[in-house]
Design brief:
This protein is an all-alpha fold. The chain has one domain. 76% of the residues lie in helices and 0% in strands. α1 packs antiparallel against α6. The protein is elongated. The protein starts with a helix and ends with a helix. The mean pLDDT is 88.
Length: 168
């Protein structure tokens, strides 16, 4: 009975790690893309129109890209930590992944509540003097989010690699 339970737990841990790795890759590369092409500058300066409303899911907004998967990032990393706790070799990596993912989620929550509504979703774009300080703050917090997503992705990948090697 213990062997079967352990096997199921390992199967579950492997599946959760797969989901966590996919969701964190999605998050990291989306965050990297946003910085490289300066999506915040484009969205913040865009005039509202019938075709392009200034809304979280309007055309040009990254909200459409993140909404389906981003909410599972931190829960998947935490679930992977719980499911993989009995494996001492991957436990430190899972701890790092869960902590980094949670840090990135907190940074995202801050942006969504404190910066994004004024910067991106006001009825009209802000004046440059109001927009620039918000963009500067957005990019600083986003740098933390990008680093957190990179660390979480690397840690999850390492944990998965260790688990695969140990079986094989």
């Amino acid at each position: 009975m213990g062997q079967t339970s352990s096997g199921r737990r390992d199967f579950l841990a492997d599946r959760i790690l797969g989901v966590a790795e996919f969701s964190h890759a999605h998050w990291f590369f989306g965050n990297l893309y946003e910085v490289l092409v300066k999506i915040p500058h484009r969205v913040a300066a865009a005039e509202a129109s019938r075709e392009l409303p200034r809304s979280p899911f309007g055309a040009g907004s990254p909200g459409r890209y993140y909404a389906p998967i981003a909410p599972i990032n931190a829960p998947a990393a935490i679930a992977a930590l719980v499911a993989g706790w009995n494996h001492a070799d991957s436990r430190p990596w899972l701890l790092v992944a869960a902590a980094s993912s949670t840090t990135g989620a907190a940074a995202t929550a801050y942006l969504l509540r404190s910066i994004n509504p004024d910067l991106f979703f006001s009825p009209q774009p802000l004046s440059e003097t109001r927009r620039n300080p918000l963009l500067k703050r957005w990019y600083r917090v986003h740098a933390l989010r990008l680093a957190a997503s990179a660390v979480a992705l690397a840690a999850i990948h390492e944990a998965r690699t260790l688990r695969l090697r140990s079986r094989g």
